[in-house]
Amino acid sequence: MSSKQDPPIDYRALAEFRYQIRRFLRFSEQVAREASLEPQHYQLLLALKGLPEGRKATITELAERLQIQHHSAVELINRLVERDLVSKQRDMLDQRQVILSLTPRGEEVLQTLAAYHRAELQIIGPALVAALKAILTDSALATTLQESESHHKNMDQEDQVVQEDK
């Protein structure tokens, strides 16, 4: 929160942005279920494939990416291993860690679902971007968002240092 006089909030812009995000998320959930996956299964496959360079595909990392508890990530991963979508193996450098990877079947399922998601974003993307731009036209809010982004980067760096220390 800013200590300066905050500008008026554009509730319509915020509501429209939230609507557009929710609309996409509903689409994502529906497409995952049509592929006989739970929405979180697709999210985990995507998070695994889309990890930033230099990040290890560990359970802890994926739990963070999905913003879920470690035990919930373990449960999701075990279900995906049972379905031959994800494989697990011990880290050669640190035997305490389990490294995850997509199986060929997991790659195929993810590629299909990601193509549907990209096509949907091509349709609703302009409305989503317009809603976000309407919110960001307020320079004070844009500054707050930049500060928030900087804060999250610092948290990610701190998390990485903690993980490296383990």
The DSSP helix count reads 6
Distance between the termini: 34 Å
Strand fraction band? 5-15%
Shape descriptor reads: globular
Report the strand count: 2
- The amount of helix comes to 55-70%
Keywords: DNA-binding, Transcription, Transcription regulation
Protein name: HTH marR-type domain-containing protein
Biased composition (Acidic residues): 157-166
GO molecular function, one term: DNA-binding transcription factor activity
Summarize the structure.
By secondary structure, this protein is mostly helical.
List keywords for this structure.
single chain; mainly alpha; DNA binding; transcription regulation; transcription; Arc Repressor Mutant, subunit A; globular; 2 strands; 166 residues; DNA-binding transcription factor activity; 6% strand; two-stranded antiparallel sheet
Could you characterize what this model shows?
- Residues 147-166 are annotated as: Disordered.
- Residues 157-166 have a biased composition (Acidic residues).
- By secondary structure, the protein is mostly helical.
- The chain has a single domain, classed as Winged helix-like DNA-binding domain superfamily/Winged helix DNA-binding domain (Arc Repressor Mutant, subunit A).
- The protein contains 6 helices and 2 strands; from the N terminus they run ααααββαα.
- It has helices at 11-34, 39-49, 59-66, 70-82, 104-136, 139-165; strands spanning 86-90, 98-102.
- A two-stranded antiparallel ribbon has the order 1-2.
- A hairpin with a 7-residue loop joins strand 1 and strand 2.
- The longest helix has 33 residues, at 104-136.
- The model has no long low-confidence stretch (mean pLDDT 87).
